[in-house]
């Protein structure tokens, strides 16, 4: 498994590095949908792992900052759930676009230089 640390361009790099693997799977009969799901699982897990500390730190900082105001408001957990959902949707959209682009290409062109 390849480690991804921070840079969103690594999604594209991961798909490019796995182009030969995608080409072999495509030549053996894998569908574009199954290849997209294969690549999406890994990134979904990483995004979910990243959400946990982000929500904890965000809750703490927002609570500390809002505590200094005269008219204090309570934090709504739906704000954090919505942000987490948005992050997952953006990750899925990015991975789906890149993996569909790679899976839709001709497998012969990715395997030609092997």
List key phrases describing it.
114 residues; 5 helices; 75% helix
Q: Can you give a write-up of this model?
A:
- This protein has helices spanning 9-17, 19-27, 32-66, 77-104, 107-111.
- By secondary structure, it is mainly α.
- 11% of the residues are buried.
- It is built from five helices and no strands.
- The protein has one domain.
- It is rod-shaped and about 65 Å long.
- Helix 1 packs parallel to helix 4 (77-104) and helix 3 (32-66) runs antiparallel to helix 4.
CA(first)-CA(last) distance? 21 Å
Radius of gyration: 19 Å
Mean pLDDT: 80
Count every helix, treating DSSP H or I runs of 4 or more residues as helices.
5
From the spread of the alpha carbons, the general shape counts as: rod-shaped
Kindly name the structural category: mainly alpha
> Can you count the beta strands?
0
How many independent structural domains? 1
- Strand percentage: under 5%
Order of helices and strands: HHHHH
Explain the layout of strands and helices:
Layout: H1 9-17, H2 19-27, H3 32-66, H4 77-104, H5 107-111
Helix pairs in contact: 1-4, 3-4
What's this entry about, in short?
The protein is mainly α and 114 residues long. It contains 5 helices and no strands.
């Amino acid at each position: 498994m390849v480690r991804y640390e921070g840079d969103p361009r690594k999604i594209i790099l991961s798909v490019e590095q796995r182009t030969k693997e995608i080409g072999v799977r495509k030549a053996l009969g894998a569908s574009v949908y199954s290849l997209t799901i294969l690549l999406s699982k890994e990134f979904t897990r990483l995004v979910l792992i990243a959400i946990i500390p982000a929500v904890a730190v965000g809750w703490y900082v927002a609570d500390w900052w809002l505590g200094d105001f005269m008219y204090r408001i309570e934090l709504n957990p739906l704000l954090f759930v919505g942000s987490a959902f948005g992050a997952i949707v953006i990750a899925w959209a990015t991975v789906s676009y890149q993996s569909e682009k790679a899976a839709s290409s001709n497998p012969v062109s990715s395997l030609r230089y092997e």
